[in-house]
Design a protein that fits this description.
This protein has 138 residues and is an alpha+beta fold. It is 16% helix and 48% strand. It is built from 3 helices and 8 strands. The chain has an 8-stranded antiparallel β-sheet. The longest helix has 12 residues.
């Protein structure tokens, strides 16, 4: 699967569908700040929630991982700019969410991504300003 960029108008729907399809899926969450420094927040923790919300001040995506009685990991991505989904080695997928303060890299294994993307409006190569094997579903 080539890199797919989800249009901003579909972020809420994508997050809802992703959470429904992947609740309990083991997730690795790594944060890359604006200087390029990385920090591993979670490794192979089950997904509890992935929520997009807008308010008067800003947009945000909240990620919650882990399970009781262990630690619950929460991270908020404020002012997301891009949301991209791509294949990684060893059958893994990566959901990369770029924001003003850096990026969140969410890695997981799933066979349900193709069906999920069919429901989304994706950026076309022309919209991205480049050519490539991207499919736009409408």
């Amino acid at each position: 699967m080539p890199t797919q960029e989800i249009k901003e108008t579909n972020w809420q729907k994508f997050c809802e569908r992703f959470e429904e399809a992947h609740r309990g899926t083991l997730i690795t969450l790594e944060i890359v700040d604006h200087t390029g420094a990385t920090k591993m927040l979670a490794k192979n923790e089950p997904l509890r929630s992935l929520r997009y919300h807008k308010d008067a001040c800003n947009d945000a995506i909240d990620i919650e991982l882990g399970e009781q009685p262990g630690a619950i990991i929460q991270h908020q991505i404020v002012e997301p700019i891009h949301m991209r989904l791509r294949d990684q080695p060893e059958s893994q997928k990566e959901l990369e969410i770029d924001a003003e303060s850096g990026s969140a890299e969410i890695r997981f294994t799933s066979a349900r991504v193709g069906a999920l993307l069919k429901e989304m409006e994706l950026m076309s190569p022309a919209e991205l300003g480049r050519e490539g094997g991207r499919v736009v579903h409408r």
